[in-house]
Amino acid sequence: VLEPHIKPSASPNKRWPLEYWQRLATLFIAAGMPVAQLGVPGTRVLEGAAFIPTGTFRMAAAMLSGARGAVLPEGGAHHAAAALGVPAVVLMGGFTPVELTGYPMHRNLGASLGDACGNRQPCQHCQKWMARITPVQVFDELRQILR
């Protein structure tokens, strides 16, 4: 499961560039690994991804429970993945320290305590952190988890 979207009220600093998400989906598809994307009806879907409409968080968690692995932004879906035992790569960037909301069972990519800013307004610090996390890196991280 790839989930490129964050809830509207979340900090924009949790957003990984959509073109990175698309490149990641392309990498998985080229490797023969199916890609699913969850979301409310009307969600912009990554090219090549199977869309699974989920109107509520509970529905998304139910669908996520069947995933072999996931790539998720820091937030509710990554907490659900941890509770359900779903291996995941979590994109935290520079907003939230990996030690604060990351789980040992996941690969948490982002800043550590003292380096994350927690800014809820668009922030160049966080944009730079997210830009450092490449689609190839995330692809490799999830493949390692799945082995």
Question: What is this structure, in a nutshell?
Answer:
37% of the residues lie in helices and 15% in strands.
**How many beta-strand elements?**
5
Order of helices and strands: HEEHEHEHEHH
Question: Which whole number gives the mean pLDDT?
Answer: 92
Compute the number of helices. Answer: 6
**Spatial order of the strands in the main sheet?**
3-4-5
For the terminal residues, how far apart are their CA atoms?
A: 16 Å
Sheet with most strands: 3 strands, parallel
User: What's the alpha carbon Rg, rounded to whole Å?
Assistant: 14 Å
Task: Note down, in words, how this protein is organized.
The protein is of the alpha/beta class and 147 residues long. 37% of the residues lie in helices and 15% in strands. A three-stranded parallel sheet has the order 3-4-5, with helices on both faces. The longest helix is centred in the N-terminal third of the chain and has 13 residues, at 18-30. It is globular, with a radius of gyration of 14 Å.
